[in-house]
Amino acid sequence: MAQNKFRGLGIALITPFRADGSIDEEALIRLVEFQIKGGADFLCIMGTTAETPCLTPEEKLWLRQTLVQRVAGRVPLLMGCGGNNTAAVVRELQETDWTGIDGVLSVCPMYNKPSQEGLYQHFSAIAKASPVPVVLYNVPGRTGVNMTAETTLRLARDFENIVAIKEASGNITQMDDIIKNKPEGFDVISGDDGITFPLITLGAVGVISVIGNALPREFSRMVRLALNGDYASALTIHHKFTELFKLLFVDGNPAGVKAMLHAMGMIENQLRLPLVPTRLTTMEQISAILRELNIKY
Questions:
Q1: How far apart are CA 49 and CA 98, in angstroms?
Q2: How far apart are CA 245 and CA 138, in angstroms?
Q3: pLDDT tens digits, one per residue of 264-296
Q4: Nearest to residue 83, comparing CAs of 127, 123, 129, 44?
Q5: Which among 21, 108, 214, 294 has most CB atoms closer than 10 A?
């Protein structure tokens, strides 16, 4: 059984851009060091929050190599590799250099809307082709299809190298069903900052977080307190961020967290089309909450 290294606070790492639209290497390195120093347990690179669909193949290669070199094994790296063409994903898994990468995060196929059997066969092919452990990613709000608890559990039982699922269905009953019936060695990771606390109380092992880009110290503390069973202290921190959770997604992701990082002086507030920065009103609300929380960075 492959071991799941992806526990605690994982960061869904953004891709910082300069005003001219190019990747900002200095900001990227600054962010990585800020997050590791702040207590991040692992980094999730080239996922949705990284605006990966808008990166060129050359940029993806540069990002992977730069991050592997910079992180240098200090925390595990989980890398996004998914799509709605199973054969193309399998080919990418076979052709990619996985040196320094500890696992692959693979999202349910988007747009095609496969059946549950189609999802099972898709991830079966990925599990058979992957040279590293696989974390499934269920996010029906983006893909248009929900992978049921039954399908997730079937995959977990049939493939030892499928070690976890990032669950972002928003369906607590479904997530609890997976946690209750999962085989040993398979974990549930929250895919939504706002329900991380309740999900950990049910048995999830951590989160792949958006807000962690900006608040790794505070959010990692909440996650650790919850994992250690200190629910009262964790709940206090969770409630501090309730408004921010909403604001970070009201204009889409990663527009919210990029606005927040910009307010903190960490990055330029740049996204690639079709994504655009948050509205000014959202930006002002985020800045006001940061001042109110008096967070030092």
A1: 21
A2: 19
A3: 999 999 999 999 999 999 999 999 999 988 876
A4: 123
A5: 214
Show the tokens assigned to 30: 């600054």
DSSP H stretches of helix in the chain: 25-37, 57-71, 86-95, 116-129, 140-143, 149-158, 172-181, 196-202, 216-227, 231-240, 242-250, 255-263, 280-293
| 212-to-196, 240, 251 alpha-carbon distances in Å | 12, 14, 18
**12, 35 Cβ separation under 8 angstroms:** no
Check: CB of residue 31 under 8 Å from CB of residue 14. Answer: yes
Which amino acid, residue 82? G
Prediction pTM value: 0.97
- Per residue in 44-88, pLDDT tens? 999 999 999 999 999 999 999 999 999 999 999 999 999 999 999
